[in-house]
Write a structure and sequence with these properties.
Blueprint (H helix, E strand, L loop, with lengths): L8 H4 L5 E5 L13 E6 L3 H7 L13 E2 L2 H4 L9 E7 L8 H10 L1 E12 L14 H9 L7 H11 L8 H13 L9 H15 L3 E7 L1 H4 L2 E8 L1
Parallel strand pairs: 1-2, 1-4, 2-3, 4-5
Antiparallel strand pairs: 5-7, 6-7
Helix pairs in contact: 6-7
Length: 231
């Protein structure tokens, strides 16, 4: 495990059985040796190489299932299929984060674990962007949103690459399309607001789960990382 991810290990050590990791890319979770795992992603390995040339090709996982969380959720899998499901730094990219959490718990067995993390904006390139409110996310859930709008990606560009807006309208749209292909961050949290998001989402969905491990940006200088037990 990379040194900057070592804070996750005590959470991973709780896992047992058969699991699924979504969006592992080149940094799959370091799970205990007695566990087995399969990989799911919206992109094939070939697509990842095309859209993310900066990644180490040799480190990319072999994807077992192609699945677009925005359009189909985890409908490939029956309820309570896995002993654990891992979603690291994916939820900020999706169109409907509450729906994704609902799907994670649906495919996890009772007494199983959901591992979920999101970058803390104070420690990444999103630092200049506004936090996403829960009301915004609930509206997307209520409206059954399945597509990230251009406005989300324009907000990303305004916060991360403001120089783009010196270009022509046509060139700006090219940049938006590129950001869409890379599925850049649609939503923004810090550790406190992501914790609030999880608690409010579980209450909204009437899901019974307990947080059994958590580490936050103030200590790891990176993310909100958590493990939830479905009870």
């Amino acid at each position: 495990m990379s040194a900057h991810l070592i804070h996750r290990q005590d959470g991973y050590n709780l896992l047992t059985g058969q699991g699924l990791e979504i969006g592992a890319f080149h940094q799959p979770a370091t799970i205990p040796a007695h566990c087995t795992i399969e990989y799911c992603d919206a992109h094939s390995k070939e697509d990842v190489i095309q859209y993310f040339p900066e990644l180490d090709i040799n480190a990319l996982v072999d994807v077992n299932y192609i699945c677009d969380l925005d359009k189909e959720g985890l409908s490939l899998f029956e309820a309570e299929r896995f002993d654990f499901v891992i979603l690291n730094h994916v939820i900020e990219h999706v169109a409907n984060p509450i729906k994704v959490v609902e799907e994670l718990f649906r495919v996890t067995k009772r007494e199983g674990y959901v591992v979920i993390s999101a970058p803390d904006k104070h420690f990444i390139f999103d630092r200049n962007r506004a936090l996403t409110s829960f009301a915004h996310l609930k509206e997307e859930y209520d409206n059954q949103v399945t597509v990230v709008t251009d406005e989300h990606y324009l907000d990303f560009l305004r916060g991360v690459h403001p120089e783009v807006f010196n270009l022509s309208a046509e060139e700006i749209q090219v940049r938006v399309n590129n950001v869409r292909n890379r599925r850049e961050h649609a939503h923004v949290w810090d550790s406190q607001t992501f914790s609030d998001f999880m608690l409010k989402t579980l209450e909204l969905l009437q899901l019974n789960a307990t947080c059994v491990f958590v580490t936050v940006g103030e200590s790891n200088h990176m993310e909100y990382f958590s493990v939830w037990k479905k009870v």
